[in-house]
Amino acid sequence: xxxxxxxxxxxxxxxxxxxxxxxxxxxxxxxxxxxxxxxxxxxxxxxxxxxxxxxxxxxxxxxxxxxxxxxxxxxxxxxxxxxxxxxxxxxxxxxxxxxxxxxxxxxxxxxxxxxxxxxxxxxxxxxxxxxxxxxxxxxxxxxxxxxxxxxxxxxxxxxxxxxxxxxxxxxxxxxxxxxxxxxxxxxxxxxxxxxxxxxxxxxxxxxxxxxxxxxxxxxxxxxxxxxxxxxxxxxxxxxxxxxxxxxxxxxxxxxxxxxxxxxxxxxxxxxxxxxxxxxxxxxxxxxxxxxxxxxxxxxxxxxxxxxxxxxxxxxxxxxxxx
Length: 322
What we know:
alpha/beta; Rossmann fold
């Protein structure tokens, strides 16, 4: 309880501090609204606290926060049990469609769930007009690699029994984006396409942007390495299922890759997109000005998020020829 009181006081302090700095110095980045800056600062402080206060503190915070999220009145959902995990279907009609987005949430393989992504998943259904299946894959450190990959494969196999692979698009953010690539390395029937939002494709988090964008992003290298250590637990990262840019991407389906220009992951995402394009993959690649990691998920109302979500909707509808 003491930690939550300290955390609440810190959030109040950050609001006052940000307002004063904005009045005196202007926005930290040219296109940032005050709410954008507050959101980034809140997330950065939260992720930094997860290192000092521990994983369970952050998980409890997510669990408490997620209780406030409910489906919109025009969204239906139901849970589906798999062998080691579960997933949740979201749609605009009780009747399930014959096409689907299979979604993998982010969180460094350690945090996150369908519940914490519920609002975003509702928006995704409406923007794309497509049913979404969100996978609650097993998390580390309780379930290190390859548990998340195994759960991704199980979810995909479940859908393939009901829907043609040509009617499935994979989508994920951060670690979830990397799970999409791991699944495509393993799948014998590839999906129609994939949408990767700020994909974490190099777990050791190297590259120039790790330093140059640190002050603008929601998390830094220490947080990334902490998550990577919990996920790998001594296993080598020299594995395409963990570090996708090490693999042969030549057979991959078309991919939309989105990233913020102020992300610490920017360099690795640029390198991954360039490698995929160089190996013949049909890549649509967009960098969003002044944006931090997974901005579209956490800040839905800012212009960049609206544009990014619109791009996702158009891309998916085009692939499904809607």
